[in-house]
Design brief:
Blueprint: H1 19-24, E1 27-32, E2 35-39, E3 44-50, E4 53-57, H2 66-74, E5 79-83, H3 89-92, E6 103-107, H4 108-116, E7 127-129, E8 132-137, E9 140-145, E10 157-160, E11 165-167, H5 180-184, H6 188-199, E12 205-207, H7 217-241, H8 244-252, H9 259-280, H10 289-292, H11 296-314
Parallel strand pairs: 4-5, 5-6, 6-7, 11-12
Antiparallel strand pairs: 1-2, 2-3, 3-4, 8-9, 9-10, 10-11
Length: about 325
């Protein structure tokens, strides 16, 4: 069974240096009552063992057949159902290894995208749903739900109510500020909202898809606070640099035929503003962000670009140009 308190972001997971991990290339841990977390030390997946078979969640290529090894080490039951968290190849690109006889369950958008962009290593889902779906097998169940686009369209919540284990991929990387550009997500407003949606579930364990451990509610709150801080600083940067008056400075200082130079300097000014504010802030627990989350010093500038640009395009512009030269109180 899993320990109640996973390691902080500043302490390496012990399994990474264990002989078993070095030999086998994966770590598997039973979180509770037959629900298992499997990791390569960078990518995560999960599975649920029931009396009638195994329900596998995802198939990252970097885990590949080590996922099968982890399941075989835990049970002799066959894998009968597979759930795709979303359509991205880095999380389900080894799904063909489960064979042709498994039921593959996913959101309808995931099927649409895999049909549109076929990949023999990612078989087309055989069972799809729109809003919610309950997967039942051997007296166990997983509740699937879709709450709108976030990391990508079709990215679902997978909840084991008995085990209080939630799988939500590519939103929170426990102990880390996540990979560049909000984990290369497509809908940033939805991605931030997904943090709040995760907290609506009654869970003790979060399988987040990345880095070296499973997560807790506190991990989600910490990640949400980080990005809420960044949203606030992005708003400040937009007010200073992204009004017609603020932006004009950058386009009037370079030759007219070098518009792209002015654009780069303009965007970078906002990114630098947000990055500086984030790295220097004393946060709610008295620490700087780099002390609370791994990856802050390397990834914050990329997150800052994404948050600034998504705020500029996805949120209100506060107004628009009036006839002539009036109406300067809006975002460009």
């Amino acid at each position: 069974m899993a320990s109640a308190c996973p390691l902080t972001s500043t302490v390496p997971a012990a399994y990474l240096s264990s002989p078993e991990f070095i030999k086998n290339g994966y770590h598997c841990e039973e979180l509770k009552d037959g629900f298992y977390w499997v990791t390569s030390g960078g990518y995560d997946a999960a599975f649920l063992v029931t009396d009638e078979g195994v329900i596998a969640i995802d198939a990252p290529p970097i885990l590949g057949e080590n996922m099968l090894a982890a399941i075989e080490a835990a049970t002799d039951k066959p894998i009968t159902k597979v759930i795709y968290s979303h359509w991205h190849s880095d999380h389900i690109g080894a799904a063909a290894m489960y064979g042709p006889d498994v039921e593959i369950i996913a959101h309808e958008i995931t099927k649409e995208l895999l049909t549109r962009f076929p990949d023999p290593l990612r078989p087309i889902p055989t069972t799809i749903f729109s809003d919610s779906y309950v997967v039942e097998l051997g007296g166990e169940k997983l509740e699937l739900s879709y709450k709108g686009a976030n990391h990508c369209p079709g990215n679902i919540f997978i909840y084991a109510p008995k085990q209080k284990a939630l799988t939500k991929i590519d939103i929170v990387s426990p102990g880390s500020c996540t990979f560049m550009h909000c984990d290369a997500s497509e809908n940033i407003s939805g991605w931030i909202e997904a943090h709040e949606q995760i907290l609506e579930f009654d869970f003790d364990f979060l399988v987040g898809g990345h880095i070296t451990r499973w997560g807790t509610r506190e991990d989600v709150r910490t990640s949400l606070e980080y990005f809420q801080d960044m949203l606030g600083f992005a708003q400040e940067a937009l007010k200073e640099f992204c009004t017609p008056v603020g932006a004009a400075v950058f386009f009037s200082t370079s030759p007219a035929d070098q518009y792209s130079v002015g654009t780069e300097n303009w965007i970078n000014s906002m990114v630098n503003y947000v990055t500086d504010k984030m790295l220097s802030k004393i946060t709610s627990n008295g620490q700087k962000w780099e002390e609370r989350l791994a990856g802050v010093t390397t990834n914050t500038k990329y997150h800052a670009y994404t948050i600034v640009e998504s705020t500029r395009t996805e949120r209100s512009h506060w107004g628009y140009q009036k006839r002539g030269t009036g109406g300067t109180n809006y975002f460009v």
